[in-house]
Amino acid sequence: MKKILKIIIFTIIGIALSIGVATYIFYKNIHVPASNKKNTSTVSKNESQNKEQAIERKNILFVGSDENNLSDTIFVINYDPANKKVNVLSIPRDTYYPRPGFNAPKEKKINAAFSEEKIQGLKKAVENLLDIKIDNYVILNYDGFKKIIDTIGGVEVDVPFDMKYDDKRANPPLHINLKKGRQVLDGEKAIQFVRYRHGYAEGDLGRIKAQHEFLNAFLKKISEHSILPKLPSLAVTLSQYLKTDLSASDITEYAYEFIKNKPSAMDARILPGEGRYEGNTSYFFVDNLKVQEIVKELFSTDASTPITSTTSFAVAENKNIKVEVLNGAGIPGLATKYAEVLKNEGFDVVKIGNVIGMTFTSSHVYAKTNEEKAKKVAKTLFITNVEKDISPDANVDVTVILGKDKK
């Protein structure tokens, strides 16, 4: 599968630098967050400290975009101030995500939601895919990445082997030529390093490890005192190449928290699944059951409670929804596997079976009596295709047909 998770960490760099820049600008002579700037005679010291700790935990969508507005990198990040941890979930650009009205093979990839429906389309797609709320977004392009690295004087990493690759069809053309050994990479060489994906014994896993090494080296570099004089230049660079709907006050509060309590750990994951061809098109098919587990771990505010779990009241309501689950992928045990998921959420699964004579690439949910009931089932199984098939003689409320995307 081509170009999965290209430059996974490169937009993390953008937000890390924006935090540093915001801190320099807003807190050069101020020692309390902007949201807490009140008359100190009326605010107690303890009250002020409590407000400083009440920073909101947000899910931020990061997009790495080329000059043609194609999203080569997509991931969701949040900062957990209670545990001083940064959580990152990367989403392969080829992730299979069919949208109503978009039927061409390439239009069924999640990165097409960005190129065709801009950031709001991608935001909606990621929210549906992960069943979480996206609070804000950040977009950074290649030129911005390179200029950021050049501004801080490069980043020192250990290139594990000679890296040489040319792709004249890429736009812009991709030329990689790096020699093995520890060295300081400028912006141009840095982007070659994080984009290189050939030659690793572990495939993409090896590349991701190399990118993590680059990120750690970058964070070490920007924590040096010598970077402070360069922050004004970074501010100019970011203003030219970084697009975000985060407000100045948002950035300020997170900047203060980041500097005051620097993250002690980063939990970076890849959306679980596998890449394979359907016809002549390569897709990344998500393992939806594992996604629920990872989303719970990374984005749930209470690790003891699954983010997709329902309340007891909702479970009681689900018992009134009759569902049939049909295996349309020809994969043994698939219908039983997902029927158990629905049963655990309280749905009344009255039939488990197979679709005869036809194979489905994508999964579908059909509303036989009520569309809202079908949407509940679809949300539980992370299925985006919901269609009406209302029938007065229906024996079930919802029919689920599982496709190969649920493998």
TrEMBL record:
Residues 71-223 form the Cell envelope-related transcriptional attenuator domain. The chain crosses the membrane at residues 7-27. Keywords: Membrane, Transmembrane, Transmembrane helix. Signal peptide: none annotated. InterPro entries: LytR/CpsA/Psr_C, LytR/CpsA/Psr_CW_biosynth, LytR_CpsA_psr. Residues 320-405 form the LytR/CpsA/Psr regulator C-terminal domain. The keyword Transmembrane helix applies. Pfam families: LytR_C, LytR_cpsA_psr. NCBIfam families: lytR_cpsA_psr. Belongs to the LytR/CpsA/Psr (LCP) family. This is Transcriptional attenuator, LytR family.
